[in-house]
Design goal:
The complex is a heterodimer. By secondary structure, chain A is of the alpha/beta class. Chain A is built from 4 helices and 5 strands; from the N terminus they run E-E-H-E-H-E-H-E-H. Chain B is an alpha+beta fold. Chain B has one domain (2-143): Histidine kinase-like ATPase, C-terminal domain (Heat Shock Protein 90, 2-Layer Sandwich). The chains are: A alpha/beta, B alpha+beta.
């Protein structure tokens, strides 16, 4: 079980993490570890992080989210960040941060669709 | 060393809050107070996010570099215009190379190196006064857009 307060759910072969609380730095740190451990444990081939409830994302949280995606990728799992609010996108770009290398989607549905294209085909017939 | 970018303005302070920063959770406390005030004074969602993010960056700077300091949040009135002012004061190590810190991409401690340069781009007025070994004071203001 994740040790931090952000739930990470397994849906089929994907993991879905929905951030619904005010993010303390320590929460973000715990989340990063939890996600990576859940990927190992479940063998998930996709990770979706829903940030639609976040009204602001500062450079620390943005970097932690981007790094989590990079770490997951090193393990072989693609990450999509979904639901970024207009004001969050505007603020990050104005600050000069572009979340390079991180895939994003407008909504959870679109994120699932993006990842659906990468679902592993079972080996056996 | 000082640096500032501002449109000089005359204004009255109509309310003041002070939040002591000496633990990580105080970053969140400052952020929440600023978000609430910005919403209460009906800043648009972009301005609310900009102010909240700026508050987060600057209080994290205090926590990460000086471990303790003070955040002062003020509601400003300039004629019919409403603004929010944020002031962060610490007696930490100060910033040795201010030009470099303001240019961005200068990463220390727990930041992207975008803390100061990024914050400056989110607000209308920004000034910083720092001296190595003495501490740092950052003041920012953002005015509500009138349409």
């Amino acid at each position: 079980m994740p040790s931090g307060p952000i739930p990470i759910l397994k849906i089929g072969s994907k993991l879905l993490a929905t951030i619904q609380i005010e993010l303390h730095d320590t929460v973000v740190d715990a989340f990063q570890n939890d996600v990576l451990e859940e990927i190992e444990k479940t063998g998930a081939n996709g990770l979706i992080i829903d940030i639609s409830t976040l009204e602001s994302v500062d450079s620390y949280v943005a970097r932690m989210l981007a790094n989590t995606g990079k770490m997951a990728k090193l393990m072989g799992t693609e990450t999509v960040i979904v639901g970024m609010r207009p004001a969050v996108a505007a603020t990050l770009v104005r600050m000069g941060y572009f979340m390079e290398g991180i895939q994003t989607a407008l909504s959870l549905e679109e994120g699932l669709e993006l990842q659906g294209n990468r679902t592993r085909v079972p080996d056996e017939e | 060393m000082e640096a500032s970018s501002s449109t000089s303005s005359h204004y009255n302070v109509t309310a003041t809050w002070e939040i002591r920063i000496d633990k990580e959770a105080d970053i969140v406390a400052v952020r929440q107070q600023v978000r609430e005030l910005a919403k209460e004074h009906r800043f648009d969602q972009f301005a609310v996010a900009a102010l909240t993010t700026a508050a987060s960056e600057l209080s994290r700077n205090v926590w990460a570099h000086a471990q303790r300091g003070l955040a002062r949040i003020t509601v400003l009135q300039n004629g019919n215009r409403v603004g929010l002012g944020l002031e962060f004061v610490d007696h930490g190590p100060g910033i040795a190379d201010l030009d470099r810190a303001l240019a961005g991409g200068f990463s220390t401690a727990k930041s992207l190196g975008l803390g100061l340069s990024g914050t400056k781009r989110l607000v209308d007025e920004f000034s910083i006064d720092t001296e190595p070994g003495r501490g740092t004071k950052v003041v920012i203001r953002k005015w509500k857009k009138e349409f």
